[in-house]
Amino acid sequence: MQRSVLNLIAFLFLILILPALSIAGDDSLTLVPERKIKMGLGFGGETITFHGILSQPGADLVVRVTSESNPPLKLSRKDKVVFFWMNVKQFEISNVPFYYKIFSSKKLSQILNEDLNASLKIGYEALKDAVQIKILKGTPADDDHQVVFEGLLKLKEKLGLYQIKDDFITINGDRFSFDLDFSDRTIEGNYIIECWAIKDGIILGKTKEKITAEKVGISKWLTNLALHHSVFYGIFAVIVAISVGLLVGFIFKGKTGH
Amino acid sequence: MDVFLPIAGMSFNFIIIIGIGGMVGFLSGLFGVGGGFLLTPLLITIGVPPAVAAASDSNQICAAATSGAFGHWRLGNVDMKMGLVILIGGLTGGTVGVQIVKYLREMGNFDFVIRAVYVVVLGGIGSAMFFESLNTLRKSKTKEIPPGEPRPPKLSNFFARLPLQMEFKRSGLRTSAIFPFSAGFTVGFLAALMGVGGGFIMVPTMIYIIGMPTICAVGTDLFQIVITTANVTFMQAITNHTVDLVLVVLLFSGSVIGAQFGVRVSRLLRGEQIRILLSIIVLLVMVKMLFDLLVTPDNLIELAKAGGGH
After folding, report:
1. Residue B11 is nearest to which of A73, A184, A220, comparing CB atoms?
2. Residues A13-37 pLDDT 10s
3. Which of A87, A111, A132, B126 has the fewest CB atoms within 10 Å distance of its CB?
4. pTM of the model
5. What is the per-residue pLDDT for A254?
6. What is the count of structural domains for chain A?
7. What residues in B contact A147, CB-CB < 8 Å?
């Protein structure tokens, strides 16, 4: 219901306000303004439909969505030792986004020529070149970079955090739209949406928007308590457990007798 | 309907979580085990991070065990004196075990060590309990021996001659306090290493080594689990910040009710019947652990895990 209302507001904004902005300014490309993803107890992931205006007829679109905060992560690599699969190496991966999605209105290879590819650095190959993989435990091997990067992509795609989709953006006249999924594995922080209008290997327009994900309500309260008042949280958790256990034991008193 | 778990940072259909809690709570009431050996792997299987699964598991077991212990206490199945001696041993063993865990984690590959220890311990205990119970069931059918409790273990005769003798009236035993303390220490140590409450080890230990009646072992074990898991919950909350109260409340909802039904069913079954059921479950978990070690994983790369928690 809430999402429908927001979509309706976004749609009205698109119809009434954006064309005026688009004509008045130099922007050839416009997206709806930033909004928030509220991660309350009912949050199970969210799909946001973005609408935009494309003033250049015949241009194609490329969208890149990345997380603003990208802390390094640790990954383990398994290998077979005798009969058993064991973690034999550990790596620290840095310079890699937590969230990474690329959408386009055609096949990427048909939109981006070599020069554009080199300057925009879009796609998994660009990520692979940028990622830094440092071995923490185990013996380094030649295929570490390849195996770890491929494993990372598999892991992230499974969690709904990485995605590359061609022919995904719908262009209808001077309007375009696309759906952006934020899975339940989304973390709090800002997500940057960059959009390029490209024709014949030339960038005709670009725009950048920000969307913020944050915990709200009980979800936010519990997280703050657990992280910043952990002694109170620990005592609270134990008291809740014992109280509920005793209460239920007492309620069942009459039914568990001899 | 999805519910977001704020500490785990993911959402699940709440019926799945309540269902898992109910199933594990039932087993907790029936067998007197905390259910950690089953609940932690189940939560990990559905995608909960291992550190959150282990910590939240402790908290929900605390509630389920409180409910179960209260039921058993009312039925006169809790040997408080025995429980306290075991508890002191368990807390000491647990403290030593946590240090060993820390050392093993620094050495790396703790995940493999956990699974390997699971396979060996569960395999050993499950097989021994299964064959003993099967034997007792067969003999009781042919009326060779009266059905019920296993024969008093030979080890208990040895401990009966050691110093620090104590009378455990509820269990009908007179033995050295060193005995239950040592059992508690061993179980506490293994519990810390394996990231579980330890009931699945403690109940067979109390029955087969200390020589307690099955139903009394179940009630007493639940009592010591309440204290142990309360301690672990608090430590996890202040050290690792991995107790997810939303997850815990959902697991509660199923498990505390399940535990009460488990207590009722335990009164309908004979000792050897309870033991054979528990042994089958223990062996199934062991097979799952062994399977995980032998089968080629989908992805050779995984997020580095935090390891066991209790």
Report:
1. A184
2. 443 344 333 323 335 556 665 578 9
3. A132
4. 0.75
5. 44
6. 2
7. 300-301
Instruction: Give pLDDT tens digits for B62-97.
Output: 887 887 788 888 888 888 888 899 889 888 887 787
Least confident of B1-10, B11-20, B36-45, B194-203: B194-203
Q: For residues B178 and B95, what is the distance between their CA atoms, to the nearest angstrom?
A: 18
Cβ-based contacts of A235 with chain B (< 8 Å)? 234
Q: How far is CA A142 from the centre of its chain?
A: 31
Q: CB distance B245–A230 less than 8 Å?
A: no
For position A45, which CATH number holds? 2.60.40.2550
Does one domain contain both A170 and A239?
no
- Are residues A112 and A207 both part of a single domain? yes
Q: Which helix (H) or strand (E) holds A235?
A: helix A230-251
- DSSP-H helix ranges across chain B: 14-31, 36-46, 50-74, 80-107, 110-141, 154-159, 178-194, 199-204, 214-239, 245-268, 271-294
Lowest mean pLDDT: which of B17-26, B158-167, B288-297? B158-167
Q: What domain range is A237 assigned to?
A: 220-255
Specify the pLDDT at position B36: 73
Both A71 and A118 in one domain: the answer is: yes
CA distance B133 to chain A (A): 26
Based on the domain organization, do A98 and A200 belong to the same domain? yes
A187 and A230, same domain (yes or no): no
Is the domain of A57 the same as that of A118?
A: yes
Task: Say whether both A39 and A167 belong to one domain.
Answer: yes
ipTM exceeding the 0.85 mark: no
Which residues, numbered 94 to 113 in chain B, qualify as contacts with chain A under a Cβ-Cβ cut-off of 8 Å?
108-109, 111-112
Interface contact B39, partner A, CB < 8 A = no
- What residues are paired with A90 via a beta bridge? A76, A137
Task: State the DSSP code for B210.
Answer: I
Q: Does some domain include residue B303? A: no
Nearest to B60 by CA among B257, B264, B256: B256
Kindly state whether residue B308 falls inside one of the protein's structural domains.
Answer: no
Cα B194 to Cα A208, A222, B153, B238, B281: the distances in Å are 49, 28, 26, 20, 17
pLDDT at A40 over 50: yes
- Selected residues 180-239 of chain B with any CB under 8 Å from a CB in chain A: 226, 229-230, 233-238
Chain B nearest-CA residue for A227: B241
